[in-house]
Design brief:
Layout lengths: L12 E4 L2 E4 H5 L3 E7 L5 H19 L2 E7 L3 H15 L7 E3 L4 H5 L24 E5 L5 E6 L8 H16 L2 E2 L10 E3 L5 H7 L4 E4 L2 E4 L5
Parallel strand pairs: 3-4, 4-5
Antiparallel strand pairs: 1-2, 3-6, 6-7, 8-9, 9-11, 10-11
Helix pairs in contact: 2-3
Length: 219
């Protein structure tokens, strides 16, 4: 299955470190960051899981749930969590999906449909494409997909930045420019006429007819 931005995130049932879930029920009315890992006890992923645990309060403030996935069982995840706490200072404080049948990895296009085999015998290299970040909205649609190589740790500050942009642009008729951060000026979308912009965004600047900027809307 090929997912793209705007696709409905596939629903599934799975065992996690916090019990069995149905994914769409887990999302509820929240945003979700789903991030995947090719194997337990891998070095880069160990640092990533610890980093996300430290950043969880920032995602909580944005009505965003975290959920991890690794192609091993939840018993292994629990053992790995001890290593993560020891080396990173914080254990995962969000559920971790056990994807031993590769079901979720296949549903989300991270492994080919033909992938098979005992997860214990599959190596990180076998699962190297299970290194994705998905942001999913309360409407259950995929808003972001980023795939990372195994040797490059993920930049979760960037994930948080994109989440801020997604939540802002979902409420207002604006877009965010390159390298935008919270509190900086934004772009008025071309769907907004100048007459409407004068009401919605008083004092906006016109750089080109198609490029108008304004202060970040409140709320």
């Amino acid at each position: 299955m090929t997912l793209s931005i705007g696709s409905t995130a596939p629903d599934f049932e799975a065992q996690t470190t916090e019990g069995k879930i149905r994914f769409h029920d887990y999302i509820g009315s929240s945003w979700v960051v789903l991030f995947s890992h090719p194997k337990d006890f891998t070095p880069v992923c160990t640092t990533e899981l610890g980093q996300m645990a430290k950043m969880k309060p920032e995602f909580d403030r944005r009505n965003t749930k975290l959920i991890g996935l690794s192609v091993d069982d939840v018993a292994n995840h629990a053992k790995w969590a001890l290593d993560i706490k020891e080396t990173q200072g914080t254990a995962p404080n969000y559920p971790m999906i056990g994807d031993t049948d590769l079901k979720v990895s296949k549903l989300y296009g991270m492994l080919p449909a033909s992938a098979s085999g005992d997860p214990a015998s599959r190596t990180p290299a076998d699962n190297q494409t299970v290194r994705n970040v998905f942001i999913i909205g309360p409407d259950k649609q995929v808003k972001l997909i980023i795939a990372y190589p195994m040797a490059t740790g993920r930049n979760f500050d960037e994930v948080l930045r994109v989440l801020d942009s997604l939540q802002l642009t979902a409420k207002h008729k604006v877009a965010t420019p390159a390298n935008w951060k919270q509190g900086e000026d934004v772009i008025i979308t071309t769907a907004v006429s100048d007459e409407e912009a004068k009401v919605k965004f008083p004092g906006f600047k016109t750089l080109k007819p198609y490029l108008r900027t304004t202060a970040q809307p409140k709320g």
